[in-house]
Amino acid sequence: MAVFGTGIRAALITMCLNQNIQFWVEKFKKNVVRDKRVQTGLEGMGWRVAVIWECETADSDGLRKRLKELLGRR
Predict the structure, then answer these.
(1) Does residue 42 contact residue 49 with C-beta atoms inside 8 Å?
(2) What residues pair up with 50 in beta bridges, in sequence order?
């Protein structure tokens, strides 16, 4: 099981404060392509892949439940 934690809050704050908005838009697009490529590659090697967003970690009970389900321990 490969678990990726990802967030957007800090990136959005940076983007809003930065004058170079087009840079951040392109960066996010490239990140999406990269993340999909990595996920596909891992799945091709037999890994199960889960993505957990930063906002999902605020609910610790829900996160604990999701991780147990992902790991097959219910």
Answers:
(1) yes
(2) 3
- Whether the predicted model's global pTM rises above the 0.70 cut: no
Tell me the pLDDT tens digit for each residue of 23-54.
878 888 898 899 999 999 999 999 989 888 88
Mean pLDDT comparison of 18-22, 28-32, 43-47, 66-70, highest-scoring range: 43-47
Instruction: For residue 7, report the phi and psi dihedrals to the nearest 5 degrees.
Output: -140, 165
Domain boundaries, the chain: 2-32+43-70
Other beta carbons within 10 Å of 31: 13
- For residue 59, what are its two tokens? 């609910």
E strands along the chain, which residues? 2-6, 49-53
Using CA atoms, how far apart are residues 53 and 18, in angstroms rounded to an integer? 23
